[in-house]
Amino acid sequence: METILELLKSLNGNISSKEINDLRDAYEMSCEMYENEKHSTGEYLSTHVKEVIKMILPMHPDTKIIIIALLHHTKSPEDLRKIEKRFGKDVRKAVASLGVLENECKRNRSHSKCQLNKMLLALSEDVRVLIICLHDHAHILDNAHHLEQKDQIVVAREILEVFAPLCAKLGIYSLKYMLENKAFSILYPQEAEDIEKTFDAIQRKHGSLLSSAEISLSKTLKSEGIDCDISYRKKHSYSIFRKMHKKGITNMIDLYDLFGTRMLVDSVEDCYRALGILHRTYRPVLHRIKDYIGMPKPNGYRSLHTTLLGLSQQSSAVPIEVQIRTHEMNKEAEYGIAAHWNYEKKGSSEPLISKIWTSRMNRLHAMSNTCSMEEEDIHEEIADRIYVLTPKGDPIELRKDSTPLDFAFQIHSDIGLKFKMAKVNGVIAPIDHHLENGDIVEIMVRKNPSPSEQWISICRTKDARAKLRAFFQAKPNRKIGARK
Known about the structure:
Layout: H1 2-11, H2 17-34, H3 45-56, H4 63-71, H5 77-87, H6 89-107, H7 113-122, H8 127-142, H9 149-170, H10 173-187, H11 189-206, H12 209-223, E1 229-234, H13 237-247, E2 259-265, H14 268-281, E3 283-284, E4 290-291, E5 304-309, E6 320-326, H15 327-335, H16 352-367, H17 375-383, E7 385-389, E8 395-399, H18 404-411, H19 413-417, E9 419-424, E10 427-429, E11 441-445, H20 455-458, H21 462-473
Parallel strand pairs: 2-6
Antiparallel strand pairs: 1-2, 3-5, 4-5, 5-6, 7-8, 9-10, 9-11
């Protein structure tokens, strides 16, 4: 753990002695809670959470997400109470939400993309939950070879259909590409191998195409007084596969963005100056110019894109995509919303990332439209849902502000009608207590049904109220309680 603390210090020089103490306490608490328990990949939970944290550290995170990540496999109500007592309600809620997601992904492999997307967003009031969930799945993918083949396929399919697209919605492209390529090689091993072989053959044919283009671009811009860092990249295998399939392309060389370079400059003005210089010097491809600085993508991505011919003397007819952005824009393109951990101003209690996340939630809800619902309906449905757990860990979907009574009726009509009392996170709760995401709810029942008519006004779900009314209507000489 000392190694992780040292890494965190090097990445965030503002870490205080209190934060270090909090991290130490969280680490000790995680060791006590996990003991020798193992993860689904076969490694110890303590090892798994450390590896997840190491994947998050390059984002320069705050200490709160490290604490949540250390404790995110906590399950028992007693342990959740300890977490709330030591680190506060927000940390407990985030840990509990991650527990719901883990249980759902593990237990219910038949859910649709739409259902899982809605659950992810409903449980992600704190963006840290999504970031940890994504990196948790990235580490599972790294260790997929320890799983049975059928489980590898299930995990890889979830990655491609849900988690990688979610990375794109959050703007975390570095993680998106890594997830896609690894999942692609599991689901489509032959296609992945064929693409790699074909690309190697193209590279051999065109020789030092990208290095030649890099030298040409650097000289051109330097002569105009623009300092820039230039790097080149090849298109990712899964991106090639998708684009060829979508556009019906059979020859990989026909892709306009098969080869690409990235130019990092000092200012927005330099971005546009560089674009003008490149268009004067080389041959731009029509309809391949995109201004994501003037019109950023919904996930916040900003950059100028153009495709040029004539960048390399050896292969002047081969198009090369050029991305032009500032260093700050590049950091945001790599880490998306997670590039904003820094505090907005001195003394602020929340990092800028929280404010950005709040402002983007409505848009992200609408982007989750993987089924035939209107955007307004999707927002309403996600915003009005919570997920709580049974003592066995099964997730139960309820409307927001539901009570233990609603939970009981959701499990079974008999349990609702025989309701005696409820424990929420191990503590006896009032019958009208408002449940929250991640709560663990246990219901105690009577021997025989004995509901009160007042329960109708306590229930928040239509289904529970309907079952109560039906019970009273079946009894002679009983009045039905008024609907709230």
